[in-house]
Amino acid sequence: MGGGEVFTRAAREALDARVCPIDLSEYRSSADAGVLAGPGCSGTGEGDAVPPGVGPEAAEQVTHLAPAVMRVAGAAYQLGDGQLTGTMGDLLQVAESAERAQVFVLADAITRGVIDASDAGSPVQWLTDMAPCLEPGQASRVVQVARIITDPANACLRGILVAGRVTVRGVHASVREARRVRAVLPDASWEQLLGYYLALADHCPTGVLRDLSKEIIAAYGGDQAPTDEVAARKHESLSWVELPGG
């Protein structure tokens, strides 16, 4: 059941009925020259939407962020019931924003050769050397997404991360699943496939994304699916697992 007609008339209607996809066109970079070009973020400064000096100023503010958070930890008993709820929401948002920022800082560190010039043997080690308590799986996720956003084909993902629309974990899971189904819907654009998964990523368990991939492969694999029985079994069981070692 492969082919453009199948996707536009059947698969797309079926997927749209199941999930309202995110339109990623608005998140595409208008400054493709920069490695990290995205809305308000350019690796070269060309076409940069961020005024000069914002980077150092923001980095200075970050140095005061951790102490401020810990002051909340030590004085949480002074907060009223309503403040506890609001503060917890703010802290969770800070944690998500921090991981997004880690991705962009790491991507720059990789592309500029900062990590190669360090004593770390890999980007994961570079992170865990600075934060020994960081789980290798989490460090690996940050590294993988950092590498993903350096690909010009993923300008929309850079943009959606900067906009705060999706978490790093959501991007990671969406890319993993979109890659799984790309072979059975070859005429769907990369952004179209990502749009479906990104719409679900931060609102559903990752198992829901995996189930959607299984449904797509089962419904639209057809002559796109491997013909060899052994290869077919491997195709059906394809998965991405974060091991303790990253």
What does it look like?
It is globular, with a radius of gyration of 20 Å. Helices cover 59% and strands 0% of the residues. About 13% of the residues have low confidence. Helix 6 crosses helix 8. The chain has 246 residues and is mainly α. It contains eleven helices and no strands. It has a domain of 162 residues. This is Alpha-E domain-containing protein.
Which helices and strands appear, and what pairs or packs with what?
Layout: H1 4-18, H2 54-63, H3 65-74, H4 81-111, H5 123-130, H6 136-149, H7 155-162, H8 168-181, H9 190-201, H10 206-220, H11 229-236
Helix pairs in contact: 4-6, 5-6, 6-8, 8-9, 8-10
Gist?
The protein has 246 residues and is mainly α.
Features:
11 helices; mainly alpha; single chain; globular; Alpha-E domain-containing protein; 246 residues
Judged by helices, strands and strand pairing, the structural class is mainly alpha
The string of secondary-structure elements, in order, is: HHHHHHHHHHH
What is the helix fraction of residues, given as a range? 55-70%
SS summary, helix count: 11
Based on the structure, what is the oligomeric state of the protein chains?
single chain
How widely separated are the two ends? 37 Å
Q: What global shape is seen?
A: globular
* SS elements, strand count: 0
Protein name: Alpha-E domain-containing protein
